[in-house]
Amino acid sequence: MAKIDFYKENAAEFDRLKSYNKEHEQKFNELIKREKREVFNSLKDVLPNCKINLKVGQICTYTNKYGVYFTGHKILGFCKPEKNNGCSVYLDLDCYWSPVPISSIS
Question: What's the rounded Cα separation, in Å, for the pair 53 and 50?
Answer without folding.
Answer: 7
